[in-house]
Specification:
Radius of gyration: 38 Å
GO molecular function: endonuclease activity; nucleic acid binding; serine-type endopeptidase activity; zinc ion binding
Helix content: 40-55%
Membrane topology: Multi-pass membrane protein
Strand content: under 5%
Number of helices: 10
GO biological process, one term: proteolysis
Shape: elongated
Distance between the termini: 74 Å
CATH class of the largest domain: Mainly Alpha
CATH superfamily of the largest domain: Rhomboid-like
CATH topology of the largest domain: Rhomboid-like fold
Largest sheet: 2 strands, antiparallel
Oligomer: single chain
Order of helices and strands: HEHHHEHHHHEEHH
Structural class: mainly alpha
Number of domains: 2
Number of strands: 4
Subcellular location: Membrane
Keywords: Hydrolase, Membrane, Nuclease, Protease, Transmembrane, Transmembrane helix
CATH architecture of the largest domain: Up-down Bundle
């Protein structure tokens, strides 16, 4: 089973690829206020993958990989919905909160989106990771400091950081994750999970519907009973037809050890039980096991092509290295 690539790693690779191919600030991808989003709606997504310079790209990619390592495991399969809803929401918030901003690009909004969602998911989980919570609180403090002072923390890029994008991403992540019902978010209250109670019984793995275990047990029991009756029937007949001697090692049996004498089906078909016993032979348990082992090895050889199937002629060698030797000996004589 192949493991799925983390979303954060995929986004980081795409962002690096975009920068290497299109260079800094690609005009076709960035958010440009002069171009209505209704006309080029893809910019609400592509703007996050564009960057202004190598330092901008390096900071965003490093931050994305870090928060992915911290929070993507707890977010699990919800990353797709989180990104699809969060990316355009961040762009919309930036346009609303920054009316004088001419253009925007970068992954920093996505980084803070994942931190906010990760904080909410970690807080709702039964076992809270202290490191994940402390990191998210530190990010929240950084965002608050940037918004109050207007100065960037740990950032020196060609374009000035958009603090509102960081704050919007963080808050949107919290809202999107908190708005999800607990069961959808993967947090199930054991008291509410009826599938875990003994009274509900087992459930189908795919449909979740209850399985009628009583009916299933009855079917299995009937099948076992029929098999035992069939085996007892042909064993009793075979013991009447044949001497109590193993057909391979010639070991003789009495009533005291008769349980060690078994009925072997020559064609390996336990359903083929002719009344005359032509498909049976009595074997001790050891010889019986050996017969079945040889049969399994034969099947494996057939599957591997090492043995020709009955009726299929293999290649025959026609070359005789001693051909004409008799004539030569006669001449020498």
């Amino acid at each position: 089973m192949t493991s799925k690539m983390p979303w954060t790693l995929a986004f980081a690779l795409v962002a690096v690829g975009v920068y290497l191919i299109l260079g800094p600030v690609p005009e076709t991808l960035i958010l440009d206020r002069s171009i209505p989003l209704r006309a080029e709606s893809w910019r609400a997504f592509s703007a996050h993958l564009a960057h202004s310079d190598p330092a901008h790209l390096l900071l965003d990619v490093a931050g994305l990989l870090l928060v992915g390592w911290l929070y993507e495991p707890v977010l699990r399969g919800r990353m797709t919905a989180l990104l699809l809803l969060g990316m355009p929401s961040i762009v919309g918030a930036v346009m609303l909160l920054e009316p004088g901003l001419a253009a925007y690009c970068g992954l920093s909004g996505i980084v803070n989106l994942i931190v906010g969602a990760g904080l909410a998911a970690t807080w709702r989980a039964e076992s809270r990771d202290p490191l994940a919570i402390l990191f998210a609180l530190a990010v929240a403090a950084k965002i608050l400091l940037e918004c109050l002072t207007g100065e960037a923390v740990f950032s020196d890029t060609a374009w000035s950081p958009v603090h509102s994008a960081h704050a919007a991403g963080f808050l949107i992540g919290i809202v999107l994750e908190t708005a999800r019902p607990a069961k959808i978010a993967g947090i199930v209250n054991p008291q509410e999970d009826t599938s875990m109670t003994s009274s509900s019984g087992p459930r189908h793995a795919k449909t979740g519907k209850p399985i009628n275990s009583t009916k299933l047990d009855r079917v299995v029991a009937d099948a076992r009973k029929a098999s035992d009756e069939r085996a007892a029937g042909y064993r009793e007949q075979a013991l009447k037809l044949y001497d109590w001697v193993c057909g391979r090692c010639a070991r003789t049996f009495t009533r005291e050890n008769l349980r060690e004498l078994t009925v072997h089906h020559k064609d390996m078909n336990h359903d083929n039980n002719p009344p005359d016993g032509s498909n049976w032979e009595l074997l001790c348990v050891y010889c019986h096991d050996n017969e079945h082992q040889k049969y399994e090895e034969h099947l494996a050889s057939l599957a591997g092509g090492r043995v020709s199937k009955p009726g299929v002629a293999g290649k025959q060698t026609t070359h005789n290295p001693f051909e004409g030797l008799a004539d030569l000996l006669k001449k020498d004589g």
